[in-house]
Amino acid sequence: MTRAERARHIDSRLAELYPETPVPLDHKDPFTLLIAVLLSAQCTDVRVNQVTPALFALADDPLTMAALPVDTIREIIRPCGLSPRKSQAISDLSRILLDQHSGQVPADFAALEALPGVGHKTASVVMAQAFGVPAFPVDTHIHRLAQRWKLTDGRSVEQTERDLKKLFPREHWNALHLRIIFYGREYCSARGCDGTVCPLCRELFPRRKSPVVITKT
Protein backbone atom coordinates (compact mmCIF):
# COMPACT_ATOMS: atom_id res chain seq x y z
CA MET A 1 0.00 0.00 0.00
CA THR A 2 1.01 3.58 -0.59
CA ARG A 3 0.82 6.03 2.29
CA ALA A 4 -2.45 7.44 0.92
CA GLU A 5 -3.91 3.93 0.57
CA ARG A 6 -2.94 3.11 4.15
CA ALA A 7 -4.59 6.31 5.33
CA ARG A 8 -7.84 5.46 3.54
CA HIS A 9 -7.83 1.94 4.95
CA ILE A 10 -7.18 3.19 8.49
CA ASP A 11 -9.89 5.83 8.20
CA SER A 12 -12.44 3.27 7.02
CA ARG A 13 -11.54 0.51 9.51
CA LEU A 14 -11.49 2.82 12.52
CA ALA A 15 -14.88 4.25 11.56
CA GLU A 16 -16.22 0.68 11.54
CA LEU A 17 -14.65 -0.16 14.89
CA TYR A 18 -15.61 3.09 16.62
CA PRO A 19 -18.72 4.62 15.05
CA GLU A 20 -19.22 6.66 18.23
CA THR A 21 -16.44 8.88 19.54
CA PRO A 22 -17.29 10.01 23.09
CA VAL A 23 -14.90 12.50 24.65
CA PRO A 24 -12.81 10.56 27.20
CA LEU A 25 -12.60 13.45 29.68
CA ASP A 26 -15.73 14.16 31.71
CA HIS A 27 -16.90 17.76 31.33
CA LYS A 28 -20.05 19.82 30.96
CA ASP A 29 -18.88 22.88 28.99
CA PRO A 30 -15.79 24.40 27.34
CA PHE A 31 -14.35 25.63 30.65
CA THR A 32 -14.50 22.30 32.44
CA LEU A 33 -13.12 20.59 29.31
CA LEU A 34 -10.24 23.08 29.21
CA ILE A 35 -9.38 22.36 32.84
CA ALA A 36 -9.63 18.60 32.33
CA VAL A 37 -7.38 18.66 29.26
CA LEU A 38 -4.84 20.81 31.10
CA LEU A 39 -4.81 18.28 33.95
CA SER A 40 -4.36 15.37 31.52
CA ALA A 41 -0.78 16.40 30.69
CA GLN A 42 1.40 13.46 31.82
CA CYS A 43 -1.66 11.93 33.47
CA THR A 44 -4.23 9.36 32.37
CA ASP A 45 -7.79 10.31 31.47
CA VAL A 46 -9.02 7.86 34.10
CA ARG A 47 -7.12 9.66 36.84
CA VAL A 48 -8.31 13.07 35.64
CA ASN A 49 -11.91 11.88 35.72
CA GLN A 50 -11.38 10.71 39.29
CA VAL A 51 -10.02 14.10 40.36
CA THR A 52 -12.18 16.66 38.56
CA PRO A 53 -15.51 15.95 40.36
CA ALA A 54 -14.07 17.26 43.64
CA LEU A 55 -12.58 20.30 41.91
CA PHE A 56 -15.69 21.13 39.92
CA ALA A 57 -17.86 20.70 43.01
CA LEU A 58 -16.03 23.73 44.41
CA ALA A 59 -15.61 25.67 41.18
CA ASP A 60 -16.81 24.90 37.67
CA ASP A 61 -16.60 28.35 36.11
CA PRO A 62 -13.87 31.00 35.85
CA LEU A 63 -15.38 33.28 38.48
CA THR A 64 -15.51 30.72 41.28
CA MET A 65 -12.24 29.08 40.18
CA ALA A 66 -10.39 32.39 40.31
CA ALA A 67 -11.67 32.90 43.86
CA LEU A 68 -10.25 29.57 45.08
CA PRO A 69 -6.86 29.70 46.81
CA VAL A 70 -4.17 28.14 44.65
CA ASP A 71 -3.26 25.85 47.54
CA THR A 72 -6.80 24.46 47.54
CA ILE A 73 -6.64 23.71 43.84
CA ARG A 74 -3.20 22.15 44.21
CA GLU A 75 -4.29 19.82 46.99
CA ILE A 76 -7.26 18.52 44.99
CA ILE A 77 -5.36 17.96 41.75
CA ARG A 78 -2.22 16.52 43.39
CA PRO A 79 -2.93 12.96 42.10
CA CYS A 80 -2.67 14.26 38.52
CA GLY A 81 0.97 15.21 38.97
CA LEU A 82 2.72 18.54 38.33
CA SER A 83 0.21 20.04 40.76
CA PRO A 84 2.15 23.25 41.64
CA ARG A 85 2.40 24.28 37.99
CA LYS A 86 -1.07 23.11 36.98
CA SER A 87 -2.83 24.72 39.95
CA GLN A 88 -1.20 28.07 39.28
CA ALA A 89 -2.08 27.83 35.59
CA ILE A 90 -5.73 27.02 36.40
CA SER A 91 -5.96 30.01 38.73
CA ASP A 92 -4.21 32.38 36.32
CA LEU A 93 -6.15 31.36 33.21
CA SER A 94 -9.43 31.74 35.11
CA ARG A 95 -8.54 35.35 35.89
CA ILE A 96 -7.52 35.98 32.29
CA LEU A 97 -10.83 34.57 31.03
CA LEU A 98 -12.63 37.00 33.33
CA ASP A 99 -10.46 39.99 32.46
CA GLN A 100 -10.04 39.48 28.72
CA HIS A 101 -12.81 37.17 27.49
CA SER A 102 -15.90 38.07 29.56
CA GLY A 103 -15.55 34.82 31.49
CA GLN A 104 -15.88 32.66 28.36
CA VAL A 105 -13.43 30.20 26.84
CA PRO A 106 -12.50 31.71 23.46
CA ALA A 107 -13.11 29.63 20.35
CA ASP A 108 -9.81 30.77 18.90
CA PHE A 109 -6.50 28.92 18.64
CA ALA A 110 -4.28 31.92 19.30
CA ALA A 111 -6.31 33.11 22.28
CA LEU A 112 -6.34 29.63 23.80
CA GLU A 113 -2.62 29.10 23.32
CA ALA A 114 -1.98 32.45 25.04
CA LEU A 115 -3.53 31.10 28.25
CA PRO A 116 -1.20 29.78 30.99
CA GLY A 117 -0.66 26.03 30.78
CA VAL A 118 -2.37 25.74 27.39
CA GLY A 119 -0.22 24.53 24.52
CA HIS A 120 -1.15 23.72 20.95
CA LYS A 121 -2.39 20.21 21.70
CA THR A 122 -4.65 21.38 24.53
CA ALA A 123 -5.99 24.19 22.37
CA SER A 124 -6.64 21.73 19.54
CA VAL A 125 -8.59 19.37 21.82
CA VAL A 126 -10.76 22.22 23.09
CA MET A 127 -11.38 23.59 19.60
CA ALA A 128 -12.30 20.14 18.29
CA GLN A 129 -14.30 18.75 21.19
CA ALA A 130 -15.88 21.88 22.66
CA PHE A 131 -16.47 23.95 19.53
CA GLY A 132 -16.48 21.41 16.69
CA VAL A 133 -13.72 23.20 14.80
CA PRO A 134 -11.65 20.75 12.70
CA ALA A 135 -8.37 20.04 14.46
CA PHE A 136 -6.03 17.08 14.79
CA PRO A 137 -4.54 17.00 18.29
CA VAL A 138 -1.48 14.77 18.25
CA ASP A 139 -0.30 13.31 21.53
CA THR A 140 2.55 10.84 22.02
CA HIS A 141 0.20 7.88 21.38
CA ILE A 142 -1.02 9.20 18.01
CA HIS A 143 2.55 10.16 17.12
CA ARG A 144 3.70 6.60 17.86
CA LEU A 145 0.92 4.96 15.82
CA ALA A 146 1.37 7.35 12.90
CA GLN A 147 5.01 6.32 12.76
CA ARG A 148 4.23 2.62 13.20
CA TRP A 149 1.70 2.79 10.36
CA LYS A 150 4.18 4.77 8.22
CA LEU A 151 1.88 7.77 7.87
CA THR A 152 4.69 10.17 8.72
CA ASP A 153 8.45 10.43 8.77
CA GLY A 154 8.29 13.27 11.25
CA ARG A 155 10.39 13.14 14.39
CA SER A 156 8.14 15.66 16.14
CA VAL A 157 4.45 15.78 16.95
CA GLU A 158 4.27 19.02 14.96
CA GLN A 159 5.42 17.32 11.77
CA THR A 160 3.15 14.35 12.43
CA GLU A 161 0.17 16.69 12.79
CA ARG A 162 0.97 18.36 9.47
CA ASP A 163 1.34 14.99 7.72
CA LEU A 164 -1.91 13.58 9.13
CA LYS A 165 -3.85 16.67 8.15
CA LYS A 166 -2.66 16.23 4.56
CA LEU A 167 -3.63 12.55 4.48
CA PHE A 168 -7.11 12.61 6.00
CA PRO A 169 -10.22 14.61 5.03
CA ARG A 170 -10.65 17.71 7.15
CA GLU A 171 -14.18 16.71 8.11
CA HIS A 172 -12.83 13.46 9.63
CA TRP A 173 -10.13 14.99 11.85
CA ASN A 174 -12.14 15.46 15.05
CA ALA A 175 -13.47 11.92 15.18
CA LEU A 176 -10.36 10.29 13.75
CA HIS A 177 -7.92 11.54 16.36
CA LEU A 178 -10.14 9.99 19.04
CA ARG A 179 -10.50 6.76 17.07
CA ILE A 180 -6.73 6.41 16.82
CA ILE A 181 -6.44 6.91 20.58
CA PHE A 182 -9.18 4.34 21.24
CA TYR A 183 -7.54 1.82 18.90
CA GLY A 184 -4.10 2.33 20.37
CA ARG A 185 -5.37 1.70 23.87
CA GLU A 186 -7.38 -1.38 22.94
CA TYR A 187 -5.26 -3.10 20.29
CA CYS A 188 -1.98 -1.38 19.46
CA SER A 189 -0.39 -0.25 22.69
CA ALA A 190 3.38 0.18 23.02
CA ARG A 191 3.66 -3.16 24.83
CA GLY A 192 0.75 -5.02 23.28
CA CYS A 193 1.82 -4.81 19.63
CA ASP A 194 5.21 -4.56 17.95
CA GLY A 195 3.77 -3.60 14.57
CA THR A 196 2.85 -7.16 13.56
CA VAL A 197 0.23 -8.30 16.06
CA CYS A 198 -2.91 -6.16 16.07
CA PRO A 199 -5.54 -6.38 13.30
CA LEU A 200 -4.66 -3.11 11.58
CA CYS A 201 -0.91 -3.74 11.62
CA ARG A 202 -1.52 -7.17 10.07
CA GLU A 203 -3.76 -5.68 7.39
CA LEU A 204 -1.43 -2.80 6.57
CA PHE A 205 1.79 -4.81 6.60
CA PRO A 206 0.93 -8.49 5.97
CA ARG A 207 4.53 -9.45 5.24
CA ARG A 208 5.97 -8.18 8.49
CA LYS A 209 7.37 -10.94 10.64
CA SER A 210 7.49 -10.88 14.40
CA PRO A 211 10.10 -12.84 16.35
CA VAL A 212 7.81 -12.93 19.36
CA VAL A 213 4.08 -13.59 19.57
CA ILE A 214 2.49 -10.88 21.73
CA THR A 215 -1.08 -11.27 22.91
CA LYS A 216 -3.43 -8.75 24.41
CA THR A 217 -4.24 -9.32 28.08
Secondary-structure blueprint:
Elements: H1 3-17, H2 30-39, H3 45-58, H4 62-67, H5 70-77, H6 83-100, H7 109-113, H8 120-131, H9 140-148, H10 157-167, H11 173-186, H12 199-204
What would you say this structure looks like, in words?
This protein has 217 residues and is mainly alpha-helical. The protein has 2 domains: 85 residues, Orthogonal Bundle (Endonuclease Iii, domain 2), CATH 1.10.1670.10; 102 residues, Hypothetical protein, domain 2 (Endonuclease III, domain 1, Orthogonal Bundle). The chain is built from 12 helices and no strands. The longest helix is centred in the middle third of the chain and has 18 residues. The relative contact order is 0.12.
Question: Which structural category fits the helices and strands?
Answer: mainly alpha
Task: Give the topology string: H per helix, E per strand.
Answer: HHHHHHHHHHHH
Approximately what portion of the residues adopt beta-strand conformation?
A: under 5%
**What is the CATH superfamily label of the largest domain?**
Hypothetical protein, domain 2
Unreliable residue stretches: 211-217
Our count of domains comes out at 2
Largest sheet report: none
CATH topology of the largest domain: Endonuclease III, domain 1
Shape descriptor reads elongated
Q: What is the straight-line distance between the termini?
A: 30 Å
Structure summary, number of beta strands: 0
**How many helices does DSSP assign?**
12
What's the average pLDDT?
Answer: 93
> What is the helix fraction of residues, given as a range?
55-70%
